Amino acid sequence: MVPAQSTAAFKRLPREDRRGELLGEAVRIALDEGLTKITARRVAAGAGVAQGLVTHYFHSVDELLAATFEWVAERERDALEAHASSDPVEHLRRLLAYYVSQDRDAAALLWLDAWRESATRPAVRAAVIRQMERDVADFDAIISTGLAAGVFPRATHKSAMRILAMLDGLSANAAVRAGLAESALDYANVTDFVLSTAERELGLSEGALHSPLNA
User: Fold this and answer.
1) Integer angstrom CA distances of residue 173 from 35, 94, 99, 182
2) What is the pLDDT along the chain (215 residues), one digit of tens a residue?
3) Which of 76, 96, 125, 134 is most buried, taking the most CB atoms under 10 A from its CB?
4) Which residues constitute the domain of residue 41?
5) Is residue 2 part of a domain?
6) In sequence order, which ranges of 51-121 are alpha helices (DSSP H)?
């Protein structure tokens, strides 16, 4: 945990730098404890500033939560893009390997929080919709490339949303994944189903999207 700084050590910063500092503290809280644990008071204490400064940059908790969620979602997208491949099958294989892995649990939990808060927070709901649309667009771009290259012969304009909907269904497992090994729940079987279904959706051979997990 980052210790709270004293407001006595307050230092003036350019507007974007100050906003970034406050957002960084909100992101830290969200990843450590969950999106709903963010408050203006806690962000101010962590950044060592007056609470009024937080409400100056983020006019409501709704706006602060939305900005925090989008920052994490965008950074996740940037990290995935850094491992992209020019081969659409390999690119999709890498994406799916990440989405079904434990490495995504922190981001998945944040998505769960954001989906839940969307019911009552308009700014969070708008942010979630934007990020979902971007995810669909990213998957659709890969699938369209593969369709044009003839490697996804059964793909349609519905394929990206269908595959992402399955992946979203796995997100809830992030909350209990640590205990799955000691339970009767078979997460590996569900993962295999998701990958196999994606292969059938796109017209790929059996196991085409499994190889990174089996390597």
Assistant:
1) 17, 20, 12, 14
2) 333 443 434 456 555 678 999 999 999 999 999 999 999 999 999 999 999 999 999 999 999 999 999 999 999 999 999 889 999 999 999 999 999 988 898 999 999 999 999 999 999 999 999 999 999 999 999 999 999 999 999 999 999 999 999 999 888 888 887 777 778 878 788 889 999 999 999 999 999 999 654 44
3) 96
4) 7-59
5) no
6) 51-57, 61-81, 88-99, 105-117
